[in-house]
Specification:
alpha/beta, twelve-stranded mixed sheet, seven-stranded mixed sheet, elongated
Length: 2022
């Protein structure tokens, strides 16, 4: 690799081994162009790149500068080196840096390229950051490694539409089989070979392919490039870069990940005849080595990191895995390197060869990585095969091979294992990592002399033994891993083309590392991630041309690259490194060794002992004696850096252990002794005792006095003036509701997917269990939320008055007892399959340890790995009724390549703003991490995030003095000391101020003064975070002691918050809390921190991690100065900062400037605002005063510059305010907001301003804050500013003052203003808390990268994961949560200890669990409320899913029945008695409520009063207005396509085993005379239903549908075939009759229109379809009924003939069919309970749900059933009275669900033209034919309201396109030949609709004239509700009512046939003026009918009385003629 921009690969030796020395490199100089000497250039570079010159640039560009050496430093060509003008250089440098900072996706132009290579101007920046798949997966073997494969893209992409998929052919359809094309001439490009590929589906054939030979191995099985490049020899398509893509193209049809090793089997050669034949096998030997074949099962262990899982070569046990690159200070790997291989230490024995001394095939010497050791039972594979291809060759004789075996031994010995949280981690790996040659002795007194343990990072090559005082030095392999990772970068790009890209060279890596270290500031710690990014950018820059060339974008024109320049050689390296380090003021020292690193290390130890490296932070040791390779290591010797790095190598368990050890052994006593020497007046304890004695017996403390006086009014009045402490009631915020709905929609989408993973329809209720970490406070908090949310009552899990004990069943604390409770949950889920259990895993990022790790180390904490053991157990994964919801603020560890959660099942908390629109307006604003960071930008007053520089300085000084103490111990002791001194200072010992820091003093002042500012004594909370429990206990004891000695026990409480225990507080404070919260219960104790609202307290919050505890609004200060700054991991950082997240009232806008705490605490501000009554300080000017660069960070973050407040603090020992100038005293006010102390600062900008203004009056403060302030205080302010000026400071700004009454004596307006805003809790609601951080953390949190993304976000996301590759784009600031999730899913892999580690091995490619969801949202934003709300709405939805809206309407026209004739005698008969039934009269009246707007049918025994029939509703509103009732679905319901359950999977054809539901299409023709042609129908018959049909043999023609016998009595099946005509309801039609039929066998046929066939087939693959001919595509339901009946009769004839041959009589064949609506949902039966006698009217009855099978079998068993023509059921209604059910049978109309005897009704047809009322029409025809219609009144059918399809699918629109006008019914007819707009609708539909709405135009006399109906011959048409009709049949022998006494008002002749004659009509009498309407198919037949019926004798016609439907001629309109009776 060159330093410049082109590739310069080292030549390889003949066998691929490393060349000894390049002929160009012998002299140690680069080969240069002739015109300039090398030295001249480097002289210039040394100056230009010296850190001093670079440091003049803004600090944030420093990291970038380390790329400069890569950027073509030495490509100067003929430029004029050294003669460059500085301005030009600076300009270019500045521009380059600026460009790089602005861009996060473009590779910036190198500075030197811009200066010297102007010819390359056209090179545009490369697009970096796109996804690049690492192709080294191609190299993995097939066994153990498959678990780490990325999802197989081959399986994700179906073949393109229309492509060929035949085996042996490519997708273009060309033959590839060797036998077919062996003799054809094949064009093979240069460098390509023909090879034979084996296809699993064609075992006997080879497929011919052309493959680039560079990707094939040589004869020894070596040197095949990664990846693939090939062409298709069939269609000639070229350039396949992925074998996956190629295998798709040639139709290999693989079920596993395509691998070239597996499928490319033979070379193909031409024989003597020139024909292609199979040649030798391709030798893939190398890959077999790499795939590590071992005994069966070895590869499946989920604990071992796959060698090449994601890029970099896999590590040795002591070296972290592929992408360990922690973002922690070089080496702060939390789980520790060895934790990647938890079980390895036992396994690595002396027998492990690292390839040096082992037999022939050896790996490259540089990567001591070839075999990941396995448990010794499996044996260790010594031969690890050839190197990865990018490494520069390898050789068994490599000079450094010596000592390899020893090195391996040493490495294994170097692992000291300490079980930690169930992991193995290295206890600071203090043994050498790899050693060679002579040992190096570590000096004995090293730590004492150096005051820190040096941390040595192994770099390249060999590392010597260390011996001697090994405890004083730490050795880490992390840098080595980082180097290895970046070596793998180039592979990712190689997929772009065949050209080999040289990885970044070792020399270059080391040089860049030196540059990086040189530019680090004295207080900065090196970060691995920074270094990786430097390597990545440098490599990209140098390969810009090649990368672009192979990117898929079209290549852009650019000039040829400059000629290659020789790379840096190892001989030049020490010199260049020394040059780089020469100007950094000795912070980096380079040692060059002649023979080995050992001498360099010895030299370093010598210099350290001699004190010559006192100012040196980093020592770089280089040994370049082995010319082709280098040995290097880097030692961190800076005390600050070394301490942080060595501590960061400790795992959390080791850290706790170390601290415990120091506390127990008394090591810390020396620290206490040191503190006692600091105070001139002796030890602090002596001072405290003295103070205690002086003040004993009398309460002279100002604080005590004030608290006594303050509390008096509380006791007297009982109702304090302050009401701010009321805890908020439980209410759902708009955000929470939105999130709950998103969760619900995700659950629904799982249910709706075709995978059948969740059958919501089968669940009746919801149950849940919330799992939380083992924190007592979190447990109580969750119980509180559940209890108050009312969710238990809503879910019906508990009745009224839920007790807390009952709630505890639903919350599970994951501790030792959790397992028992969880088993009960699992048992419940198993026993209640119809309950949906939601398992909520709150705080889901906690404890991700694999249970396998726990099993290995079961002696560790039993709760470790508990989450995995419980939530990932087989029962939970497989239970179909458990949905798991992970809830967390930090989801990153659950977003890896192996996650179980599908990206589609992630729900992210929504952003509150979108395009500037507030999506969910709330009266509170969430204040989280980004807002805290924003507050640190200038333009805000005092930032909310700060660090304490004096504290940090003290810690650093003590760290040097006490090198053996852990810095956590030192920090804790210093901080406690600061608090003690501050408490003493505030209590009157003012000289103690100099022993504390400004920040701590501010906190204690506000803590103590806040309660005095509030009438109730409300105070504020200070959170002191001490992660280490033993240290927290020490801090608690110490602070309690100080408080006791200062007599402050009743002023504030100190609470030790420990996860394992509850909260305990003193009696005095308990009493106060009860009074504030109005609690009567004597036993009450606060159980959550939220209940401490308003309590003045210091909460010492311990525990390694917070567990989701919420803090009260009175939290004022979040003191995080003690958090473990070494664990720089995104989750850890955000978790700690999340403690301060809160909601602030958004009534007063929190703008810039409206930030906490007065800005005057800025030293510069004090003077400027002192007397600025009139001056308005605008935002711009204030920030300019503060800092020269406007958007630089505010200078007030650290105590030195930020505040004079404490130093100007004015409390004399007695507590009386000392008179001080108003200006400085105001400073105090700044830090300690007067009215109610600190809580005011963060949370109430508005009020704070008023108070401060009242206190000192500069309106500048007001104007600087939000302009939206309420104006009322202003007049008061203006008037009293001056008068208050003198007095108020004493009360409002010197917070330690005794409550002097100056505020009340000020001008009257003053107290009002102050009074209104006194309470700290009130203020706390309006401002977020102030957060103090360690400096290191502060720097990470507040620094941003070039895109503006906070540095913290680009850290390693979680300690449980690692980066998949160092070749990854950076996160971008603009990424949404979803995009971040996808980023982490692509670029992170779990460590072996992570519970998801083994997930990919589970067989499914995607590995996602279908019923797992992840909800993520910022901390404390309300996720608990959201998921509880989700449970409520999920429960409501399930109830809704088990309910259905059914029509619930009373039967109409009941009053028209003639009671006398209406008796069926035997009320208890189960079946009708035929003889009795025949005597019943037929009831012509239509009672079905859906026809209540239809024309009434008159019969001779009815006389209708005209007023009885009014218009009930507009027919158009039929659907809208019909009454429905919500019913619970019974187990016998019919379902639509949304129902999925286990039982009916097979029935529906959606079961995986039944996916092969092939259906066959069968034509079935029969002739029908009325249509005058043969009808051809098509049946679609699934294979599973073919047994219902008879097929011809042979030929398989459909002959008939099998029919049973009348005599069959089996109860196993339903005899009658069911036909369901349907249109537009493929999803919503209720065709799933499985449950309705109670599982009984039945034949069900869907009757569909031709154009809907495909969609119905898709939704109902296992249903038989009868497809109507295409001529019926626009027909109505009449056509379907007509064809069903005709087909059934034809089939009956066929079956009779067929079975007659079998000896069965024709009359024994079952003649019935069922015609059912597609909306029949449930069926009921009435149970009678006869009270009195047979005729008694006293009887009771009940109605219950039964199966359709029960009803059908009952009816089919009826005696004499074949004598009935039509049988039906009553329509269900809740209003049904006993009168309707008393008669068991009626002879009347039947609808919706009918059982039709096709034999008896052979001569009665449905009218195929009808759209509406065709069933009424048919009923009348059947009755008039003398046949029996019977309705079973004790059976009823419920019809579901379905809003789509059915008759509503017919829309009448204009035929003229683009005419949007609605067409009204009056326009449905027109005069013939008129220019009327024609309509696109069938003529029959227009006619029926017109008559329904406008028949009064034709029959004016009939309107409301029910005594004189319209005579309707042979048909029933609906003429609207106001016109009655009388139906008569013209057929001979038909039954008609007696019409002799009727005078008709009209006559309707509709398409009358030859039976209607003139004589027939003359029998009827008409009123004078009655009207006639004759309807015919065309005008000709109209005239013929008039003549044939002699109508002109009695009726008068006029020309203008002729009409037609508004159809075009081609649509065959209907014509009608009207006339008047003469």
């Amino acid at each position: 690799m060159t330093l410049g921009g082109t590739v310069c690969d080292r030549p390889r030796g003949p066998a691929g081994g490393r060349r000894a020395v390049s002929e160009k490199g012998t002299g140690g100089l680069l080969r240069l162009t002739p015109d300039r000497s090398f030295h001249a250039r480097l002289h210039f570079l040394g100056a230009a790149l010296s850190p001093t010159s670079l440091l003049r640039q803004p600090p944030r560009c420093l990291v970038y500068l380390c790329f400069l050496p890569t950027c073509g430093l030495l490509q100067m060509g003929n430029s004029y080196a050294g003669q460059l003008k500085t301005t030009r250089f600076e300009e270019v440098l500045h521009n380059s840096i600026e460009a790089s900072l602005r861009s996060n996706s473009l590779v910036p132009r190198p500075v030197f390229s811009q200066l010297y290579l102007e010819a390359e101007q056209q090179l545009s920046a490369l697009e970096g950051g796109g996804r690049v798949d690492n192709e080294e997966e191609e190299e993995e073997g097939e066994g153990a490694l498959e678990q780490s494969c990325t999802p197989n893209p081959y399986q994700l992409h179906p073949p393109p539409e229309g492509s060929c998929t035949t085996d042996g052919f490519c997708q273009a359809g060309k033959d590839l089989r060797l036998v077919s094309i062996s003799s054809e001439a094949i064009d093979v490009p240069a460098g390509f070979l023909l090879v034979g590929a084996k296809s699993p589906s064609l075992p006997d054939h080879l497929l011919v392919c052309a493959v680039d030979k560079r990707f094939l191995p040589d004869d020894n099985g070596h040197n095949a490039l990664l990846g693939f490049s090939g062409n298709c020899v069939g269609c000639g398509k070229k350039g396949f870069c992925y074998f996956t893509e190629f295998s798709n193209h040639i139709n290999l049809k693989l079920t596993t990940q395509p691998k070239k090793q597996k499928h490319l089997k033979y070379y193909l050669i031409r024989n003597a005849q020139g024909a292609l034949t199979k040649g030798p096998l391709i030798c893939w030997k190398g890959s077999e080595f790499r795939s590590r074949q071992m005994p069966a099962g070895a590869g499946s262990s989920s604990l071992f990191l796959p060698l090449e899982s994601a890029g970099p070569p896999a590590p040795f046990p002591s070296e972290p895995g592929p992408g360990v690159n922690p973002s922690i200070p070089l080496g702060a790997l939390q789980a520790g390197p060895a934790s990647d291989h938890p079980a390895l230490t036992a396994a690595v024995g002396p027998a492990v060869f690292n390839g040096k001394d082992s037999p022939k095939h050896q790996p490259p010497v540089k990567t001591h990585l070839s075999a990941v050791p396995r448990p010794s039972a499996l044996g260790i594979l010594a031969n690890a095969g050839p190197p990865k291809k990018r490494h520069k060759g390898w050789s068994a004789e490599s000079p450094s091979a010596a000592g390899g075996g020893n090195r391996a031994k040493c490495e294994s010995a170097g692992l000291t294992c300490v079980p930690q949280v169930g992991l193995v981690g290295p206890a600071s790996v203090t043994f050498p990592v790899v050693a060679s040659g002579e040992p190096v002795s570590v000096p004995d007194n090293l730590l004492k002399i150096c005051q820190a343990k040096p941390v040595i990072f192994k770099g390249h090559g060999n590392f010597p033994y260390l011996c001697g005082n090994l405890n004083d030095v730490v050795v880490s392999p992390l840098l080595y891993t980082c180097y290895q990772n970046s070596q793998s970068i180039s592979r990712a790009y190689e997929q772009y083309g065949a050209s080999t890209m040289q990885p970044i060279s070792e020399e270059m890596q080391l040089l860049l590392t030196v540059y990086y270290l040189v530019q680090l500031a004295a207080d900065q710690v090196p970060l691995m991630e920074d270094l990786e990014q430097i390597f990545l950018r440098s490599w990209r820059e140098s390969h810009l041309t090649e990368i672009r060339q192979y990117q898929q974008a079209p290549p852009q024109p650019f000039p040829p690259a400059p000629s290659a320049v020789a790379p840096v050689t190892s001989a030049q390296l020490p010199w260049l490194a020394g040059l780089a380090a020469s100007s950094c003021n000795n912070s980096v020292h380079v040692i060059e060794c002649a023979y080995s690193l050992a001498e360099g290390l010895s030299e370093m130890f010598r210099l350290l002992i001699e004190g010559k490296l006192a100012k040196t932070n980093y020592v770089v040791i280089i040994c370049a004696c082995r010319s082709p390779a280098i040995d290097s290591c880097i030692a961190v010797t800076g005390k600050y850096q070394a301490r942080i790095l060595s501590e960061s190598l400790l795992t959390p368990a080791e850290y706790q252990k170390e601290v415990n050890y120091e506390l127990v052994t008394g090591k810390v006593d020396s620290l206490g002794a040191f503190f006692s020497t600091l105070c001139p007046e002796g030890d602090i304890d002596i001072l405290l005792d003295k103070f205690h004695q002086e003040n004993q017996g009398h309460s002279s403390s100002s604080l005590t006095a004030s608290s006594v006086t303050k509390s008096a009014p509380l006791d007297v009045s009982g109702t304090p003036a302050c009401t701010s402490s009321q805890l908020e009631g439980h209410s759902i915020r708009p955000f929470q509701l939105a999130v709950a709905q998103k969760l619900l929609s995700h659950v629904c989408s799982i249910a709706d997917s075709s995978t059948q993973n969740l059958d919501l329809g089968s669940f009746e209720k919801v149950d849940f269990l919330i799992c939380i970490p083992p924190s007592e406070v979190t447990y109580q908090q969750t119980l509180f939320h559940v209890w108050h949310s009312g969710v238990l009552l809503e879910l019906g899990l508990e009745k009224e008055h839920v007790t807390k004990q009952r709630v505890e069943q639903y919350v599970l604390k994951l501790d030792a007892e959790a397992q028992t409770k969880f088993k009960v949950f699992l048992q419940n889920s198993f026993q209640n399959p119809h309950t949906l259990f939601v398992l909520i895993h709150d705080h889901a990022h906690w404890d991700l340890v694999s249970s396998a790790v726990h099993n290995l180390y079961s002696q560790s904490d039993p709760s470790v790995g508990l989450v995995d053991r419980l939530l990932n157990c087989k029962e939970v994964k497989e239970a179909p009724n458990i949905v798991t919801l992970h809830v967390t603020s930090f989801p990153y560890a659950l977003q890896t390549q192996h996650t179980l959660i599908s990206p589609y099942n992630e729900i992210h908390w929504p952003a509150s703003y979108s395009n500037g629109v507030d999506l969910y307006p709330e009266n509170k604003k969430y204040f989280g991490l980004s807002e805290f960071i924003e507050s640190t930008l200038s333009g805000h007053s005092l930032p909310l995030l700060r660090y304490d520089s004096s504290f940090e300085a003290m810690v650093t000084a003590l760290g040097k003095r006490f090198p053996r103490l852990h810095s956590a111990v030192i920090r804790t002791f210093v901080l406690v000391q600061h608090y003690a001194a501050a408490l003493m200072a505030v209590s009157g010992l003012s000289h103690m101020k100099s022993y504390t820091s400004v920040e701590t003093l501010e906190i204690t002042q506000n803590l103590l003064s806040a309660p005095k500012q509030c009438p109730c004594g409300h105070g504020l909370m200070v959170l002191l975070r001490v992660p280490c429990s033993p240290l927290a206990a020490v801090a608690y004891e110490r602070l309690a002691h100080v408080r006791a000695r200062l007599a402050l026990e009743e002023h504030f409480e100190i609470i030790l918050g420990n996860p394992s225990s509850g909260i305990s507080i003193g009696k005095h404070f308990l009493k106060q809390l009860k009074m504030w919260q109005k609690i009567e219960d004597a036993e009450w104790r606060p159980q959550t921190y939220l209940e401490l609202e308003g309590l003045p307290c210091i909460l010492i919050f311990s525990g390694v991690d917070p567990h989701g505890e919420s803090l009260p609004r009175s939290l004022r200060y979040c003191d995080l100065r003690l958090i473990n700054s070494s664990c720089l991991v995104r989750t850890a950082l955000e978790q700690e900062l999340g403690l301060a997240a809160s909601f602030v009232s958004s009534e007063v806008p929190l703008e810039k400037g409206a930030r906490p705490e007065a800005l005057e605490s800025d030293a510069e501000k004090l003077s400027s605002t002192d007397n600025e009554d009139e001056e308005l300080v605008t935002e711009g000017s204030t920030s300019e005063k503060r800092s020269p660069v406007k958007r630089e960070r505010s200078r007030s973050h650290d105590s030195a510059s930020s505040s004079l407040s404490s130093k100007a603090s004015s409390s004399a020992p007695g507590g009386e305010p000392s008179a001080q100038p108003a200006g400085p005293s105001q400073g105090e006010q700044a830090r300690s907001p007067q009215p109610c102390g600190p809580s005011e600062e963060g949370r109430a900008p508005g009020e704070r301003k008023r108070a401060r203004a009242a206190g000192r009056g500069p309106p500048s403060v007001i104007s600087r804050h939000s302009p939206g302030l309420a104006p009322q205080p202003d007049p008061g302010l203006k008037s009293c500013q001056r008068s208050i000026q003198g007095s108020v400071p004493s009360s409002s700004s010197q917070l330690s003052s005794s409550g002097s009454s100056s505020s009340s004596t000020a001008a009257p307006a003053g107290p009002l203003v102050l009074q209104a805003t006194q309470c700290s809790v009130t203020r706390a609601c309006r401002q977020p808390p102030v957060v103090f951080l360690p400096k290191l953390v502060y720097d990470v949190v507040t620094s941003t990268d070039s895109s503006g993304l906070p540095k913290a976000a680009s850290l390693l996301p979680s300690p449980a994961v690692m980066w998949a590759s160092s070749f990854r784009p950076l996160l971008s600031k603009t990424m949404t949560s979803t995009e971040q999730s996808l980023y982490y899913r692509q670029w992170t892999v779990p460590r072996p200890s992570h519970m998801d580690y083994g997930n990919r091995a589970e067989g499914r490619v995607d590995g996602f669990h279908p019923r797992r969801l992840l909800l993520s949202g910022p901390p404390q934003i309300g996720k608990t409320g959201a998921y509880l709300q989700f449970l409520s709405i999920l429960s409501r939805m399930l109830i809704r899913l088990t309910e259905v809206d059914v029509y619930d309407e009373e039967e109409s026209n009941i009053h028209l029945r003639d009671e006398a004739d209406w008796q069926y005698l035997q009320l208890t008969d189960p079946w009708p008695d035929l003889e009795l039934f025949k005597k019943l009269p037929f009831d012509y009246t239509i009672h079905d409520p859906k026809y209540q707007d239809a024309s009434l049918i008159c019969s001779h025994h009815q006389r209708i009063k005209s007023e009885d029939r009014g218009t009930h509703r507009k027919p158009d509103d039929l659907y809208v207005r019909r009454q429905t009732a919500r019913m619970r679905l019974s187990k016998y319901a019919a379902y639509n396509t949304y129902h999925h359950c286990e039982q009916c999977h097979q029935y529906m054809g959606s079961h995986p085993r039944y996916q092969l539901y092939e259906s066959t299409l069968h034509a079935f023709a029969f002739s029908y005379s009325m249509l005058g042609e043969e009808i051809q129908l098509h049946f679609i018959i699934p294979k599973s239903k073919e047994h219902h049909f008879v097929f011809s043999q042979p030929g398989g023609q459909l002959e008939s549908m099998r029919l049973p016998l009348v005599t069959d009595k089996s109860h196993e099946y339903i005899k009658s075939p069911t036909f369901t005509p349907t249109t537009g309801r493929h999803e919503h039609g209720l065709f799933n009759l499985y449950h309705a039929m109670d599982g009984a066998s039945h034949l069900h046929v869907l009757v569909v229109k031709e154009y809907e066939m495909a969609i119905y087939k898709k939704y109902w693959p296992n249903h038989i379809m009868l497809v109507l001919p295409s001529i019926f595509n626009s027909a109505g339901v009449g056509a379907a009924h007509f064809l069903i009946k005709e087909l059934s009769y034809h089939n009956l004839e066929l079956e009779r003939n067929r079975q007659e041959e079998l000896g069965i009589k024709p009359q024994d064949i079952w003649p019935f069919i069922v015609i059912s609506d597609d909306s029949c949902v449930m069926w009921n039966v009435v149970d009678m309970d006869g009270g009195g006698g047979e005729r008694s009217r006293e009887f009771s009855w009940t109605e219950r749900n039964v199966s359709l099978k029960h009803i059908m079998q009952h009816i089919e068993a009826a005696p004499n059933i074949t004598h009935y023509a039509l049988i039906g059921l009553r329509k269900w209604s809740s209003k049904t009275g006993s009168r309707e059910v008393r008669e068991p049978f009626s002879r009347c109309h039947v609808h919706d669900f009918i059982i039709l005897n096709v034999d008896l009704t052979q001569n009665v047809q449905y009218n195929q033209n009808r759209f509406m009322c065709d069933d009424v029409d048919f009923n009348l025809r059947v009755h008039s034919a003398g046949l029996l219609l019977c309705r079973f009144n004790r059976f009823s059918v419920m019809k579901k309201q379905i809003a789509v399809g059915g008759h509503r699918s017919f829309h009448i629109t204009s035929k003229v396109s683009g005419n949007p006008m609605a067409v009204v019914p009056s326009q449905y007819i027109c005069a013939p030949d008129s220019k009327h707009t024609f309509l696109a609708a069938p003529a029959q539909l227009l006619l029926e609709k017109f008559l329904q709405h406008h028949s009064h135009r034709f029959f004016p006399l009939s309107l409301k004239n029910h005594g004189h109906p319209v005579l309707s011959v042979d048909c029933y048409l609906n003429l609207g509700s106001q016109i009655s009709v009388c139906y008569v049949s013209s057929r001979p022998h038909s039954l008609n009512i007696s019409c002799s006494d009727f005078m008709f008002s009209g006559l309707l002749l509709y398409l009358c046939d030859s039976f209607v004659g003139a004589g027939f009509l003359k029998k009827f009498h008409f009123l004078k003026g009655a009207t006639l309407c004759v309807i015919c198919q065309d005008r000709n037949s109209l005239r013929q009918t008039v003549v044939r019926l002699e109508l002109e004798d009695e009726w008068q016609f006029r020309l203008r009385d002729e009409f037609q439907t508004a159809n075009a001629k081609e649509d065959r309109p209907l014509f009608f003629l009207t006339g008047r009776h003469i």
